[in-house]
């Protein structure tokens, strides 16, 4: 299924598999890349919980809380984490928006970078599945906190 990109500054098309889930799992999914899928889920979930858009500083703050640092170039599973995040952008799960502020806001040059959900994250079945998984995790965490 084709989807046009709604962003004015980036053009492209996305495709979604129409294979049944069991066929997709048997012939397309690669268990050796499950860590990439997990990181993509974590990052897009953070952005989703932030309202669909988050500045770079806040995204890295949340990832550091999970033990993932932007300065780590040799993570035992993901390698260079900045490159891993860039790969998520290249796969069209996130868009990057960079702004130059007249006043110095973030950093010495006043640059601000934001990550926003992109078309693959907003695709109907993926979007619905993400929301379902996030709500299960959040409800589980809330239940375990209430049990204490």
TrEMBL record:
<dbReference type="GO" id="GO:0005634">
    <property type="term" value="C:nucleus"/>
</dbReference>
<protein>
    <recommendedName>
        <fullName>MAGE domain-containing protein</fullName>
    </recommendedName>
</protein>
<dbReference type="InterPro" id="IPR002190">
    <property type="entry name" value="MHD_dom"/>
</dbReference>
<dbReference type="InterPro" id="IPR037445">
    <property type="entry name" value="MAGE"/>
</dbReference>
<dbReference type="InterPro" id="IPR041899">
    <property type="entry name" value="MAGE_WH2"/>
</dbReference>
<dbReference type="Pfam" id="PF01454">
    <property type="entry name" value="MAGE"/>
</dbReference>
<feature type="domain" description="MAGE">
    <location>
        <begin position="37"/>
        <end position="98"/>
    </location>
</feature>
